[in-house]
Amino acid sequence: MVEAATHSSTLSVCERPSTPVDEALKARIRAQIDRWGERLVILAHHYQRKEVVPYGNFVGDSYYLSKMAAQQEKAEHIVFCGVHFMAESARILCRPDQRVYLPNLRAGCPMADMADDAQVDDAWEFLGGFTDLKAIIPISYMNSAARLKAFTGANGGLICTSSNADKAFEWAFARGEKVFFFPDEHLGTNTANKLGIPRDERVLYDPLKPPTDPAPYKKARVILWKGFCHVHTNFTVEHVERTRRDYPGVKIVVHPECHEDVVNIADACGSTAFIDKYVRSQPSGSIIAIGTEINLTSRLADEHPDKTIFELSGQNCPLCVNMFRTSLEDLATCLESLGPGAHDKEIFVRPEIARDAKLALDRMLELK
User: For residue range 307-321, what is the model confidence (pLDDT) as tens digits?
Assistant: First the structure.
């Protein structure tokens, strides 16, 4: 087996050893889990800190966790260890009598912030100036605010995740002539590539430099928003080439938020759930480099000691600082405050926004 000492040290950059304080926090969390029983459900995204993940009743990507949120029947309290747009989506999909919490309210998403409602409204107005808007189907990536999910639902569109973007595109083209996809240009590009949509039938919309010439947009079948994930765009072709040179026989799997040049030369590409399954499917002794957030990569390395698993860049710590915000202390404090009264970590969505956003989310969940 290829030695992985250097990569083990790379993984440890974003970690720290457990302390007596951590052990006390874990005991507080476990006490609240025991107290609430089936009346409490904790959802944990793959990118959460490794010490937080074990407390998730359900652990997965945003698509899976959305489904789980919608299916909870006994839970009174749903605590989402993730980022704000995920907790909002859970709030929208849950029953009105259920309560949803985000343990750290500062856990946002820079990509989601790259498309605000005023910018999307301006883009929609621009497109409507030369095209029947009924022919354009909006698709909003899950990484977007509730207001934009509502815009999508109200205009006949749906939400997608990296697990089902190709199915969402196919759904949209069965109902319209054009797809308006936001906010991640790379997931949109990689999905268009996967479906064989020619490059001359795509166009990029830059909200910071709104276009004035409608010609490219009239021709395009796919209109992509200029947005990106700062974690995944750090992985480069050079990283792939160096890894293949240094580790003969290595398998490289990356997330579709990576640049298309990286995706095109990787061995496999898919969502966090796909990456998890891909690693598990590889035989003992495999060497696997992963192009995604460090916490999932590090956890997979721990779970599969018979395989050499490391993050693709080998040079940095591809950390989503917002996912990392949720600590054991955040979770313990959140759980200890559950009850009938007000809670400062509770997530609310206005009814009129939730109604239209739920249309878009339900359409996503109905995809076959």
Answer: 999 999 987 789 999
pLDDT for residue 314? 86
Query: Of the candidates 197, 72, 85, which has an alpha carbon nearest to the alpha carbon of residue 152?
Result: 85
pLDDT for residue 2: 36
Burial of 166 (0-12, 13-18, 19+ CB in 10 A): middle
Q: Kindly report whether the global pTM for this prediction surpasses the value 0.90.
A: yes
| Domain boundaries of the chain, sorted by first residue | 17-108+323-349, 115-227, 232-319
Q: Which fold has domain 115-227?
A: Rossmann fold (3.40.50)
Q: Is 343 exposed, middle or buried (0-12, 13-18, 19+ CB in 10 A)?
A: middle
Q: Is 365 exposed, middle or buried (0-12, 13-18, 19+ CB in 10 A)?
A: middle
Q: Do domains 17-108+323-349 and 232-319 have the same CATH topology?
A: yes
Helix (H, G, I), strand (E, B) or coil at 82: coil
Judge whether residue 168 has pLDDT over 70: yes
In the predicted structure, residue 335 carries a pLDDT above the cut 50 = yes
Assign 67 to helix, strand or coil. helix
Please give the CATH number for the structural domain made up of 232-319: 3.40.50.10800
> What CATH number is given for 17-108+323-349 in this structure?
3.40.50.10800
